[in-house]
C-alpha cells in the first residue's frame, strides 16, 4: 500500500481491515446469541398439533392464534384425570410450574390435572404453602410493587371489584405461609389463552371453569407444593 | 414400438411403487401422543410425582420433616432415570428415581 499525498487519498491498512472485519463478526455473533436466547426463552413449551402431527412452539402469539381459532386451549392444558404416584394425601395441590400443570391429588394414585399460567421470567417462585382462604369473584388490589412498576395498575390501587374483567377471575385461593399471606394466589382469568405460558407476576392462573372446579374440591388449609426449577424465590422452606 | 411397449410395461410397476411408498409412509407415521402428553418442554424436568417420591424417600431416610423438603431441580439421565436435586431442611440432596417410581439412590451433596 502506498500513501499518495498528491491526491490526498489514504488507502486503509490491511491490519485495520482485519480488525474491522473481526469486530463485525463478533457483533454479528453477539446479535445471534441474543436472538437465540430470546427465541429459546420465548418458546420453551411445545404442543402437539394433531392436524399436522408435528410439535410446534407454544408462545404468546401461537397461544392467542390457537384460542381465536378453537375457542379453547390446547388439549394438553384441558382438565383430565391422570396417574399420579405420591404419598401426599388427597386434597393436596401440586404445581409443576415448568410444565404448566396443577395437580389435585385424588385417591388411588390419581390426580385431576389442570393447565396453568405461571410467573414470567424473574417472577417464578417455589415452596410449600397452604390455602389460607378462598373467595368468589374476588376484588383485586394490586400489590404496592405492581402499582410502582405498572402504569395500568395505578388506577386500581384502591381495588377493582370482582367481575368478568377482573384479573383474578371467578375464584381465588389465597396462599399462606403459616399465618402470613404470601400475596400469591391461584386464581381464574379473563385471558384463558395465557394458560400454558409464563405471563404473570407470580400468581398461578387457571381457566375460570377450572378454578371454579378446583375451589369446589379444595378445603382451606390444603397443602400446596409449588415446584419450579429456576425459581426466583422460595416460600415455606 | 418396443420403447412404447417398455413404457407401458413399466407403468404398473411405477403405480405399484407409488402405492407401496404411500402405504409405507402412512404406516410409519407415528401415532399421536395421548392428550395428557400433548405438551412438552425443551428442557425436560422430572414428572412432578417422581420428584415428590424422591422427597418422600429423603424424608424417610433423613428424618427431616417432609414439609421442609422441596425438589428444586431435576433432569433426565436416560430413558428410564431422572435425577432430582432437593433441599432438605437447608441441606442439598441428590436422588435418582426411575420412570416406574422406584427411588434408586439418595446421596447428600
Write up this protein.
The complex is a heterodimer of chains A (237) and B (109). Chain A has 237 residues and is α/β, with parallel strands linked by helices. Chain A folds into two domains: 1-42; 76-235, L,D-transpeptidase catalytic domain-like. Helix content of chain A is 25%, strand content 30%. In chain A, strands 3, 4, 5, 6, 8, 9, 10, 12, 13 and 14 form a ten-stranded mixed β-sheet that branches. A two-stranded antiparallel sheet of chain A has the order 1-2. In chain A, a hairpin with a 4-residue loop joins strand 4 (93-96) and strand 5. The longest helix of chain A has 29 residues, at 14-42. Residues 1-10 and 34-43 of chain A have low confidence and may be disordered. Chain B is of the alpha+beta class and 109 residues long. Chain B folds into two domains: 2-30; 48-108, Nuclear Transport Factor 2, Chain: A (Roll). In chain B, 39% of the residues lie in helices and 32% in strands. Chain B has two helices and five strands. Chain B has helices at residues 2-28, 48-62, and strands at 39-41, 69-78, 81-88, 91-98, 103-108. Chain B has a four-stranded antiparallel β-sheet. In chain B, strand 3 and strand 4 (91-98) form a beta hairpin. The longest helix of chain B has 27 residues, at 2-28. The model of chain B has no long low-confidence stretch (mean pLDDT 86). At the A-B interface, strand 1, strand 3, strand 8 and strand 13 of A face strand 1, helix 2 and strand 2 of B. Strand 1 (45-49) of chain A pairs antiparallel with strand 1 of chain B, so a sheet runs across the interface.
Keywords:
heterodimer; A: 237 residues; alpha/beta; L,D-transpeptidase catalytic domain-like; 2 domains; 10-stranded mixed β-sheet; two-stranded antiparallel ribbon; 5 helices; 14 strands; 25% helix; globular; disordered N terminus; B: 109 residues; alpha+beta; Nuclear Transport Factor 2, Chain: A; 4-stranded antiparallel β-sheet; 2 helices; 5 strands; 39% helix; 32% strand
Amino acid at each position: 500500500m502506498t500513501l499518495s499525498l498528491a491526491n490526498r487519498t489514504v488507502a486503509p491498512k490491511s491490519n485495520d481491515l482485519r480488525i474491522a472485519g473481526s469486530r463485525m463478526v463478533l457483533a454479528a455473533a453477539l446479535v445471534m446469541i441474543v436472538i437465540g436466547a430470546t427465541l429459546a426463552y420465548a418458546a420453551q413449551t411445545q404442543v402437539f398439533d394433531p392436524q399436522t402431527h408435528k410439535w410446534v412452539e407454544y408462545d404468546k402469539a401461537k397461544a392467542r392464534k390457537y384460542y381465536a381459532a378453537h375457542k379453547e386451549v390446547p388439549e394438553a392444558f384441558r382438565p383430565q384425570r391422570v396417574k399420579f404416584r405420591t404419598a401426599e394425601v388427597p386434597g393436596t395441590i401440586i404445581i409443576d410450574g415448568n410444565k404448566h400443570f396443577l395437580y389435585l391429588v385424588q385417591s388411588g394414585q390419581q390426580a385431576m390435572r389442570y393447565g396453568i399460567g405461571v410467573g414470567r421470567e424473574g417472577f417464578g417462585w417455589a415452596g410449600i404453602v397452604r390455602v389460607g382462604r378462598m373467595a368468589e369473584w374476588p376484588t383485586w388490589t394490586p400489590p404496592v410493587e405492581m402499582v410502582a412498576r405498572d402504569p395500568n395498575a395505578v388506577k386500581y390501587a384502591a381495588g377493582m371489584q370482582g367481575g368478568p374483567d377482573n384479573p383474578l377471575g371467578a375464584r381465588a385461593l389465597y396462599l399462606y405461609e403459616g399465618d402470613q399471606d404470601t400475596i400469591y394466589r391461584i386464581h381464574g382469568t379473563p385471558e384463558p389463552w395465557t394458560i400454558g405460558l409464563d405471563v404473570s407476576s407470580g400468581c398461578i392462573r387457571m381457566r375460570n371453569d377450572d378454578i371454579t372446579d378446583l375451589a369446589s374440591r379444595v378445603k382451606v388449609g390444603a397443602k400446596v407444593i409449588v415446584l419450579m426449577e429456576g425459581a426466583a424465590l422460595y416460600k415455606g422452606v | 414400438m418396443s420403447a412404447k411397449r417398455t413404457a407401458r410395461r413399466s407403468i404398473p410397476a411405477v403405480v405399484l411403487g407409488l402405492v407401496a411408498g404411500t402405504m409405507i409412509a402412512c404406516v410409519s407415521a407415528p401415532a399421536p401422543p395421548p392428550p395428557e402428553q400433548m405438551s412438552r418442554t425443551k428442557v425436560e424436568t422430572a414428572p412432578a410425582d417422581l420428584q415428590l417420591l424422591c422427597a418422600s424417600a429423603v424424608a424417610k431416610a433423613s428424618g427431616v420433616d417432609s414439609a421442609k423438603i422441596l425438589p428444586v431441580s431435576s433432569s433426565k439421565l436416560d430413558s428410564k432415570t431422572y435425577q432430582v436435586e432437593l433441599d432438605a431442611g437447608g441441606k442439598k440432596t441428590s436422588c435418582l428415581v426411575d420412570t416406574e417410581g422406584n427411588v434408586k439412590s439418595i446421596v447428600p451433596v
